[in-house]
Amino acid sequence: MTSWSVHPPLEEAADLARRLNVHPAVMAILLRRGLRLESDIRGYLNPAIENLEKPSAFTDMDKAVARIRRAISSSEKILVYGDYDVDGVTAAAILVPILRSLGADVEIHLPHRVYEGYGLNIDSLAVWLKRKAGLVITVDNGITSVEAVKYLKENNVDTILVDHHVPKDRIPSADAIISGAVPGKGNPDSPLAACGLAFKLGWALLGDFDKVEPYLDLVTLGTVADLAPVEGDNRILLKWGLPCLSRSKRAGIRALMEAARIHPDFVNYRDIAFGLGPRINAAGRMGSPMEAFRLLTTDNFLEARNLAQILEAGNRERQRVEADAYREAAKFVETNLALDERHVIVVESSHWHEGVLGIVAARLTERFHRPAIVIALKGGVGKGSGRSVAGFSIFTSVLECEDLLDSFGGHAQACGLSIREEKIPDLRKRLNAAASHVFQGAKDSLGLWVECEITPAELGLQLLQDLEKLAPFGPGNPKPLFLSRGMKLRGEIKKRGKDTLQCWMSDAAGEVTCEVIGFRAYERWQTGSKIKREFDIVYQPTLKNSNGIRSITLELESWR
Questions:
Q1: Which of 2, 184, 359, 416 has its CA 20 to 30 A from that of 83?
Q2: Cβ neighbours of residue 527 under 8 Å, at least 6 residues apart?
Q3: Is the pLDDT of residue 208 over 50?
Q4: Which residues, 6 or more positions from 524, have their beta carbon under 8 angstroms from its beta carbon?
Q5: How would residue 410 be classed by pLDDT, with cut points 50, 70 and 90?
Q6: Residue 434 near residue 508, CB atoms below 8 Å
Q7: In angstroms, what is the C-alpha Rg of the chain?
Q8: Are 371 and 439 in contact (CB under 8 A)?
Q9: Residues sharing a CB contact under 8 Å with residue 106, sequence separation 6 or more, in sequence order
Q10: Mean pLDDT of all residues in the chain?
Q11: What mean pLDDT is predicted for residues 342-349?
Q12: Strand residue runs (E) in 400-531
């Protein structure tokens, strides 16, 4: 059972809350998240686009811009080499049109997940060398491709790396590197995903923020889908980018919303994470990522609608394959892994599709509150994808076992790897031994932290409106959770969609009744709660506006 820990009250929150006209509970949240100065708090509550870090903050930005301009002026062929996930596709969909608007002779290559794999593939590069590419710009890969960059250099091809992944012991000898993860190349605290880095490079090339602003919708898509921390520049980009996404005139985004049945008036973080993102990812998981790229760059709505339907079909197939793999993986964890083998969950099978590993890992992490690595086996070789919990870097943990791996890359919250089948037991053993000191007996830090205990009657308008100012929520900016005890179930639990729980609950006094929504909760509820009528619940309160009528919805996180 997931543990609940309630934060103690902060006496200093009340006075500061009065001075800044912020609800005391929200002020306590801000203080607990490290915001102490009034100026920082005001800036956090009102993130201004003017506060974005300028492109010049990257050491190699001037070199990258100069090299690209030289390629354009000499009609040199430029190859943008992306990745097959949403971050890589959106980064390419930002950079390629910007380069073309500047008159560049630019081509795009997005690798096939199964046949080419992650990163710069030398065989694929060889084909482009025959087509006379003179400059390669990577987006969302390249920082670990030491040999591939060397190969390009030996063939007189320059390379610009635009990558947010963490480098290993050697840095490729590229002509320019746009990254916050490489020492000396940018702000090491920068949370930008590759789409954000491509946006900064496009900004530098165009020289005017107003000209790059139309790409905020794509930055938002890639940032959310890649689980990038909702901090710093990312929080500003998302705060401004979510409304841009809602009103986007991009044919592909409009067609994608139509296919996903997402109303364009207001698109939220969850709509991207569970609606738009998976459909774009489905192209790279189950087919070709070029379909997603064409969708995001076409001006023709009919073409966009056809491409969206292709992605929709791929997503349905992905959901089926993912559901089968998840059920098998979860059952394996519960029946085959001892408790000391669950600090970092490592599961493998020859039945699983390589394209759904990351999603299955994310669902295992969500269910067991532990990092998870899911590996698909084929011919004695495993391809794996990992996801982590807040505060635990899966990249650092797996990097310590690099001697067991054929290849590896990633960042704190996600990783990808390849490994020989016979070495998987050693990987599981070493990861769990190393992580035992972090997770053993640390259930409070791994459970749910609750901001305060409250009754629904105390959820006033100011509290809910001030909570909205902390959004969007995601990695690095977790949604604030509240605890209400003795909530009484009114009526019956209903199932919405595939696994969403919907019901009504009243407070212990019977004074206030609220709608309760539990995403991915119906199946869990059915396994142990369906005969109960009274509950303690942990939830995120949200303000719902339907036809001008405001009501409170409780987004259920946990219950007892």
A1: 184
A2: none
A3: yes
A4: none
A5: confident
A6: no
A7: 24
A8: no
A9: 77, 78, 79, 80, 96, 99, 100
A10: 92
A11: 94
A12: 405-411, 414-420, 448-450, 452-453, 482-496, 500-506, 513-518
pLDDT at 197: 98
The answer to whether the beta carbons of residues 93 and 140 sit under 8 Å apart is: no
- Helix or strand run (H / E) with residue 6: strand 4-6
- Among 404-408, 478-482, 516-520, 529-533, where is mean pLDDT lowest? 529-533
Question: CA separation (Å) from 149 to 123, 135, 187?
Answer: 13, 11, 23
| SS3 at position 3 | coil
Those residues whose C-beta lies under 8 Å from the C-beta of residue 191, and which sit 6 or more positions away, are: 180, 228, 229, 230, 231, 232, 233, 234, 476
- 474 DSSP assignment: B
- The b/e string for 201-239 (b: 16+ C-beta within 10 A; e otherwise) is bbbbbbeeeeebbebbbbbbbbbbbbbbbbbbbbbbbbb
For 443, the token pair is 């259930």
CA dist 420 and 490 (Å) reads 53
Taking the CA atoms of 210, 215, 217 and 220 in sequence, report the sign of the dihedral they define: negative
> Is 354 within 8 Å of 362 (Cβ atoms)?
no
For residue 472, is the peptide bond before it cis, meaning its omega torsion is within 30 degrees of 0? Answer: yes
Sign of CA dihedral 3, 9, 14, 16: negative
Question: What pLDDT, on a 0 to 100 scale, did the predictor assign at position 279?
Answer: 93
Give the up-direction half-sphere exposure of residue 16: CA atoms within 13 A in the CB hemisphere: 20
pTM for the model stands at 0.87
Helix (H, G, I), strand (E, B) or coil at 536: strand
CA dist., res. 147 & res. 173, Å (int): 9
The partner residues of 225 in beta bridges, in order of sequence, read none
Block residue for tokens 């001006």: 299
Phi then psi for residue 416, to 5 deg, are -130, 150
Higher confidence at residue 505 or residue 408? 505
If one counts every other C-beta atom within 10 angstroms of the C-beta of residue 64, the result is 23
36, two tokens: 């102490």
What's the CA gap between 133 and 113, in Å, rounded?
23
- DSSP symbols for 289-301: HHHHHHHHH---H
Residue written as token pair 């710069």: 120
CA 543 to chain centre: 24
Report the 10 Å Cβ neighbour count for 330: 17
- Highest mean pLDDT, choosing among 55-64, 394-403, 492-501: 55-64
Cα(304)–Cα(33) distance, rounded to whole angstroms? 42
Which of 516, 375, 538 lies closest to 449 in space, CA to CA? Answer: 538
